[in-house]
Amino acid sequence: MGVLWPLEPATGAKHRLYKHYFDAWWPILLQPSPRSGGSWPKVTFLDAFAGPGRYETGEEGSPVFNLRGLLNHNHVDRMGLSRERVQLIFIEKDRATYEHLVKELYENFGPLDQLPVRVEVRCGEAGQDSDRLLTELNAWGHPILGVFDSWGNVNTPLSVMARIAANPASEVIVTFGPNWFSRRKELNEDIVDGVFGGREHWTHVAAARDSEEMWRAWLDSYRAALQRVGFEYRLQFEVVPRTGKPLYLVYGTKHPRGVEVMKDAMWRVDKSDGMRFRDPRVRNAVALGQVSLFDDGEVIDPELLALVQQRLSQGPVSLEDLGQWLLLETSQWRARDAKKAVQDLDGDGRVILPAGRLTKASVVSLR
Ligand SMILES: C[S@@+](CC[C@H](N)C(=O)[O-])C[C@H]1O[C@@H](n2cnc3c(N)ncnc32)[C@H](O)[C@@H]1O
């Protein structure tokens, strides 16, 4: 039997998001920035659960499409690529899968030591080797994007996330496969302690009543863990493919701009096949998808309305603060979505607005 497996719909949906996000991330980190007056001397991308680089159904895996996206980027001439400055680290535990990845990279890009960026592929274990490899490659002290796509058995210790969070402009993306929440019972409790930063941070989750409750509670718990280690801004959401099982993603960044870029990527994803992103806070809203949202001013996603009402139920808020809440606290909504939502709720008589034109300072309350 070969080492490849078919692309699951949720993985395909996640890849669409990654492609847009990485496409935005590389130039932001590598191009000279008018704001900072310079650019970073070193930037590291770590794909700690790299996979074989290809799916049985022919699609490229994350190491291949990411490296291709970087080398063929529209702005590549302005990104100052060099082997000293830009490095990609791929870790894969399974020997045969690792060997396939090495072969796949060679077939697609030629000898890795002749590329304009450094690519290190290692057969190793994400939890133990991420830290060691980042040290070996002098990544600390500079921006790092760590992607931890572990399938079911999330086992990367929170200490690795903490060490990444201590670097400037650094971020992590951690995915939880659909089986993690059920398989968790089979995991070694000490490992779960390491992932969540202590037993007190996860035992209450195990008491959740049903599977719906459970994944929300695990994601909340993990989001809080990323906050504790220094990722000031976090997003968590469910990636729901049109068919098949969903997967869950938590993103941590140190800068609100990162959140904007991730959300922009979420909105750029082609969802015409019916895939969607879902906010864990909303239980019963029927998600209509975003494609028709606001285009004709008629359809507003019920998830957005439910979230705005949730926020207003805590008390009146200015339109500006409502927008910031949507941006920083909800999975996919942006600051600019606040106004449309409030206008829609006003049309239904569900909110109280001050008379006159709606401005950032207008205070909105629930009727
Ligand atoms: C979900 S797949 C990765 C998919 C890949 N990132 C992509 O998007 O194309 C997870 C991979 O991690 C590998 N793996 C499992 N446990 C690991 C560990 N502890 N450290 C590193 N790799 C691991 C598996 O062999 C598998 O190839």
Task: Walk me through what this model shows.
With 367 residues, this protein is of the alpha/beta class. The chain has two domains: 9-278, Vaccinia Virus protein VP39 (Rossmann fold), CATH 3.40.50; 302-366, Orthogonal Bundle (Arc Repressor Mutant, subunit A), CATH 1.10.10. The protein is 39% helix and 15% strand. It is built from twelve helices and eleven strands. The strands form two sheets. An eight-stranded mixed sheet has the order 3-2-1-4-5-7-6-8, with helices on both faces. It is globular, with a radius of gyration of 21 Å. The termini are far apart. Residues 47, 49-51, 61-62, 91-94, 97, 125-127, 149, 151, 155 line the site of S-adenosylmethionine.
Spatial strand order of the main sheet: 3-2-1-4-5-7-6-8
- Taken together, the total number of domains comes to 2
Shape: globular
What CATH calls the topology of the largest domain is Rossmann fold
Largest sheet: 8 strands, mixed
Tally of helical segments: 12
Instruction: Write down the CATH class of the largest domain.
Output: Alpha Beta
* First-to-last CA distance: 62 Å
The counted number of beta strands is 11
* Radius of gyration, taken over Cα atoms and rounded to an integer in Å: 21 Å
Poorly predicted runs are 288-293
The CATH architecture of the largest domain can be given as: 3-Layer(aba) Sandwich
Mean pLDDT: 91
Indicate the structural class: alpha/beta
- What percent of residues are in strands? 15-25%
SSE order in H/E notation? HEHEHEHEHEHHHEEHEHEHHEE
Q: CATH homologous superfamily of the largest domain?
A: Vaccinia Virus protein VP39
Bound small molecules, deduplicated: S-adenosylmethionine
Tell me the helix content. Answer: 25-40%
